[in-house]
Fold this sequence. Notes:
Layout: H1 2-9, E1 11-17, H2 21-37, E2 41-47, H3 50-60, E3 64-68, H4 76-86, E4 91-95
Amino acid sequence: YLTIFLITRYTMNIAICNPNRAFCNFARKTITEKLSALSIKLKVSIFPDAESFISQHALFRFDVAFIDMALPDINGLELASALKSLTPAIQIVFICSDTIQNIPKYI
């Protein structure tokens, strides 16, 4: 009972960091629909690059981050490392629209 109480009173801060605005809007809609159906309150923020994301992370302390591997300023792994040093409990989901053959260049 206590867990359900805490979940319904807590607002989960979710970030999507991807330069593709259409993808971000689709992801925000999907995440909002799925988690709202579970009665989870959330705020989803969208960032086109790592710099804007890190500057806002200091203010909002995101719980979950969906990070594109191919960001315009740094790669997703570098951003994830920076976020983990700021907030070790953050959960990170990597996303990539590149072909499977190109993924090793991000690692």
